[in-house]
Amino acid sequence: MSAQRLVEQFESLEKQDHAARLAMWMFLGSETLLFGALFAAYAYYRGMYPDEFVQALHHNSVALGTTNTVVLITSSFTVALGVHFIRENKARLTAGLFVVSTLFGAVFLVVKGIEYSHHIHENALPSGMYTFIDKPPAGVVLGYTLYWFMTALHGLHVIAGMIMLAVVALLCWKGRYGAHRNVAVENVGLYWHLVDVVWIFLWPLFYLTD
Amino acid sequence: MSQATIDADSRPNPLGVGADHPDYLRADSGLRSWLLTKDHKRIALMFYVGVILFLGLGGVFALVLRTELLTPEQTFIDANTYNQMFTLHGITMVWLFMIPAVPTVFGNFVLPIMLGAKDLAFPRINLASFYIYVLSAIILLGAMLAGGADTGWTFYVPYSTTSPTAVTWMGIGIFVNGISSIMTSVNFIVTTHTMRAKGLSWHRMPLFVWATYATSIIILFATPVLGMSLVLLALDHAFGLSLFNPRYGGDPVLFQHLFWFYSHPAVYIMILPSFGVISEVVCSFSHNQPASYRAIAYSSLGIAFIGFFTWGHHMFVAGLSEFDAGVFGALSMFVAIFSAIKVFTWVATLRGGSISFATPMLYFLWFLFLFVFGGMTGVAVATQSLDVHWHDTYFVVAHFHFIMVGGTLTSFLAAAHYWFPKMFGRLYDERVGLLTSVAVFIGFVFTFLPQFLLGNGGMPRRYFTYPERYQWLNVLSTGGAWLLGAGLLLALGNLLLALKWGKRAGPNPWGSRSFEWITASPPSKHNFEETPDIERSAYDYTLSEEVARERAKAR
Ligand code: HEM
Ligand SMILES: [Cu+2]
């Protein structure tokens, strides 16, 4: 079975697996820089408008943000467990853990949705959404814009990660992966950790620094 | 080649590895076998077609621009058309030709063979990368039909956010284009790390591989930043996000920072693969090992690294502090140092070599001239006091065309001729090759040399009319552009004719020691049956061809 999965351009499974892992790391590196541009913008504008940013972040609920941090860290833990068990050939256990992680992802999105609806009520909106009259001071709006954009982009990554987790969970259940065939499982795990790590940077920036 | 028939038995597979299998062009047939191919060589050819189409399209735009500038007043298009035309020209040339050209065509084709691999690590991603490139081209062309953009290729805010043209779609198109280059880069990096043949240590690899590797690293780190900035720009244009709009507290200079953080390295994305091509050409045609292999290889990495810390030299007049400007100016000089290392090493390689003077070698000479000249003007414009005078004049246009267009175009043509026998198994007509090469060079110099004078005399860039006194230089430049266009068409014609009527090439018509010449020309579908065993460097010209083959055993 393992001989079968060797694709023709590689001469050995080790090399093939090495390649898949390396590719994932490269991809994660470029994802990090995608957010990097936004972190740079955040730092730049926060330096320009320190007080306005504090005023903007005041709308964020530390409780909800922290809940989401806990949710994501827990999901990262279940993902890590899943990766651990696939190495012990317990594919079904992995499948279950990945499903649980996917559900945590869903919880995260629900909480995020609740937050967003609060913001909409409180008129804490990204630029472009205001009429002339109700527009808060410029620096505050920049804060909102960055908040919305960065969290929404992160949210898209959560959704992408959930889809991957679900697919891999299904394939684990069907016995596609096992102790000797787990690079895809590991790679999805890595991706989910990235989603988690990005949030761990967003959390202090948007919730803890007012 | 001819000796092959004399004592075929004493040489290991004189027709090249895999010559007893059908070559990649014939291995499968039918349109489907091309469109769904996972063979890196076929994908390279598909990119080839695309890249040449866009070079042609960008060239047509350029000729329209230059023809408009023939007379001081309006010649035949109005100001708005002119603005859109130079934007389209820049966008097509930068993202659809110069950035992808050498890596996707020649990188794709020769990199795996140079490494002794059967294919890239992820053939499916490679194919996807091609279709994403096509998709990006469709979006960009669609945006062009929907009015194009009139912002210039730099998309400076706040104008770009309020311009009534199709800026949103341009931004999206370039973002998609970036996905394609990131995919290709991941593929190259991973392939270089994991698929080298037995015995092929890092210091035995062909220099082209080093160059492509360094380029891929830049792409991986710089492209996402550009992608992000353009997405923000597109959202701003579409929904009024206003992140960079001073009216809403934003800072347009931040956009410039983000843009140049990518786009300065992007100029090395365009030029580094060219360095790789030039290194191969110089060694092959002087039949000599590079004067310093390590200097060439590591200076690519040096440029890749320093390139990330020089972006501010585009912003000397955008309100940088004196201190910042000084730092960015000084850092820029490091790039010049690394580039000079390369130039000296190439020239030193010629010494003691036995030089055969073929078309690719002629392109090397043009490359050397344009690159050194363009690079020195780069040092000049990286000096703040001088740049304040030259900024946004034709001097800058001339500088970046010399180095960027001169560099990619000459090396692209060098590569097209150099690897032509490998790719298609035939030889082009050498005399026509030399002739068209001269035409291209003369056309190029006549187009851009006058622009240095124009810029120094104060003619601003991006204007479609100008005072009378600039006319004679503009006429020279326009004439040069037409000659350049004609030269390129003739070169293309020469290669196209050779596809069918060229003489058959042996596996190694230039007598090169680089590894791609071990396989048959054209190579069979999988290049090698098994990974070869490599017991020498890619430039071991102390060995005879037979021994060199023997030391790079391959089936
Ligand atoms: C490796 C080859 C190089 C390429 C492909 C290249 C390309 C370019 C391009 C495309 C621009 C114009 C950007 C625009 O549209 O505004 C430019 C401008 C500039 N380049 Fe280069 N360049 C190269 C080397 C250098 C070097 C070595 C230096 C400095 C030591 C340099 C310094 C500058 C400066 C200061 C400007 C800005 C001028 C201005 O806008 O006033 N370049 N270059
Ligand atoms: Cu630059």
UniProtKB/TrEMBL annotation, chain A:
Alphabetized SUPFAM superfamilies for the sequence: Cytochrome c oxidase subunit III-like
UniProt cross-references to InterPro entries, sorted A to Z: Cyt_c/ubiquinol_Oxase_su3, Cyt_c_oxidase-like_su3, Cyt_c_oxidase_su3-like_sf, Cyt_c_oxidase_su3_a-hlx
Gene3D superfamilies xrefs: Cytochrome c oxidase, subunit III, four-helix bundle
Keywords, comma-separated and alphabetical: Membrane, Transmembrane, Transmembrane helix
Membrane topology according to the record: Multi-pass membrane protein
Transmembrane segments: 22-45, 65-86, 93-111, 146-173, 185-206
Segments forming domain Heme-copper oxidase subunit III family profile: 21-210
Family: Belongs to the cytochrome c oxidase subunit 3 family.
Top-level taxon: Bacteria
Species this chain originates from: Polyangium mundeleinium
Keyword Metal-binding: no
One Pfam family in the UniProt entry: COX3
Protein name in the entry: Cytochrome c oxidase subunit 3 family protein
Cellular compartments annotated: Cell membrane; Membrane
TrEMBL record, chain B:
Compartmental location: Membrane
Segments passing through the bilayer: 43-65, 85-115, 127-146, 166-190, 210-239, 259-283, 295-313, 325-350, 362-382, 394-420, 432-452, 472-497
UniProtKB keywords: Electron transport, Heme, Iron, Membrane, Metal-binding, Respiratory chain, Transmembrane, Transmembrane helix, Transport
SUPFAM superfamilies for this protein: Cytochrome c oxidase subunit I-like (SSF81442)
Domain named Cytochrome oxidase subunit I profile: residues: 34-535
Membrane topology type: Multi-pass membrane protein
Record's keyword annotation contains Transmembrane helix: yes
InterPro entries: Cyt_c_oxase-like_su1_dom, Cyt_c_oxase-like_su1_sf, Cyt_C_Oxase_1, Cyt_c_Oxase_su1_BS
Pfam families according to UniProt: COX1
Main location: membrane
PROSITE patterns the record matches: COX1, COX1_CUB
Keyword ATP-binding applies: no
Family listed: Belongs to the heme-copper respiratory oxidase family.
Protein name: Cbb3-type cytochrome c oxidase subunit I
Species in which this protein is naturally found: Polyangium mundeleinium
